[in-house]
Structures are given as structure tokens and as C-alpha cells.
């Protein structure tokens, strides 16, 4: 099979307070979504958000529907965001073809058209990171290159969180139903990816960490602001963040991460912030 998936059901903050390390990782960590020759999905019941990967090697990969969607086509009632973190590749959407270099994005609107993933060089395959959310309208497909992103320069070297937030699939750049995605790259010497920590009571968020050396790791913080928990993650791991959870992280080496979210609104700044002295 070239398409595989798993389902993650929603759990509340009261249950999570009782979880040990293995239970936290089982519920919130996605550590095998980038598999050569496969499309792999984690179907989350938080906002019905899906996080996945497509790594075409010797053959192209097709975006097939999966049983939880109960539809003949994957995008019959969904929209899709794609960011390439590998070698150059192509995404065929119906009769259209979009070539994506590393760290370029593609938004695919609600459609019943076929979607096919392809690598330009099998020796250096594309690694397409995927997010999908329910959609109520078919907006146009759109490629977003690095020059098209809205870039926010945030943080400072003194607080170890100087970073560039590249807003790729977001209101003002691409018209979407609810999906938002972007790529944050930290400046040399900075290792905190988000500070102050924040949560979105009106939407979920998923962090996907990449460009991390094999011997390094990121400590991702989650949980309620006064009941924090942590998960150690490696390269190309993702963490699902429920609406009731904060999200931030700190790395032992250089890295970048992709954030994706969906929910009640498209206001990027709709978040509740918690400075370090308020965290427990």
C-alpha cells in the first residue's frame, strides 16, 4: 500500500494530567509521517485536522481518499496545504502542474481533481509535508514561493528567540477556508521557537520540526499554562497541539519548524499569550 493512516481521538486536559511519557507521546507525537514511497496521514479529531507526508521515490504517489473521510475523493470536502522540505518535486492537480523547490508551498482548494506527487531526482526526493482541514468552498489553487511569503521578524538574540516567521498559506497571501501554514527559521544562536508561549482556544495547531541533526533534539512544551508537559522530538517529527494547550519549544541545536492550524477564524493574532513567569 502507498497510503497509510492512523486516527487520533481528542482527549481533554483532565485526562492528560494523568499521562506518563509514553502516553503523551502516543497521543500527541507523530514521528513516522515521512516514509519513502508512501503517503502517510494522522487523522486528528481536533478540528478534524490532518497532518501527513508524501515522499515519492521510484514512482509518483497519488493522494487517495481514506476511510474516515467517507468520500470518493480526498479533497471532496477538504483543502490541502503542502510545503516541500526535500529535493525539488512536482505536484499535479488535475491538468495543472506546480513545481516546488525546498521550502516552497502550494495551496490546493476543495476539489475532486486528482493530486499526484512526484520527485524530480530520485536520489534526492521531494519530501512533501501535508496539512488538511475541512473546507466549505473551492478556492483557487496557488503556489507560494519564498518571495511571496509575508515575513515577520520576531524575538531578539538576548532572549534566544530571534526568528523569521514566513507566513505562506495565510489570509492576505492565499484565500483559504480555515487552513493556515507557515515556516519559522531561527537565527544562529537562538533556540526558543515561540516565546511567549501561547494557545488558541479557537483552533488547534501542529508543529513539524525539521533540519535537525540526528544527534540533536527539540523539547516541545504543551499542556495548560499552569500544568505544562514536555515531549522530546527529533527531525521530521510533529506534535499535535489541542486548543487547550500551549505550544513552544527549545532545541539543543539549529532547526526550523512548520506550523499549521485550523479552526474558527483566520485571524493569525487570535492567541492567548503566557509570558515565562506565568508558566508552571
Automatic annotation (TrEMBL):
Positions that bind Zn(2+): 198, 200, 205, 247
Enzyme class, first EC level, given as a word: isomerase
Keywords in alphabetical order: Isomerase, Metal-binding, Zinc
Cofactor note: Binds 1 zinc ion per subunit.
Cofactor(s) this protein requires: Zn(2+)
SUPFAM superfamilies (UniProt xref): RmlC-like cupins
GO biological process: D-galacturonate catabolic process; D-glucuronate catabolic process; pectin catabolic process
Function: Catalyzes the isomerization of 5-dehydro-4-deoxy-D-glucuronate to 3-deoxy-D-glycero-2,5-hexodiulosonate.
Family, similarity comment: Belongs to the KduI family.
Protein name in the entry: 4-deoxy-L-threo-5-hexosulose-uronate ketol-isomerase
Native source species: Neptunicella marina
Gene: kduI
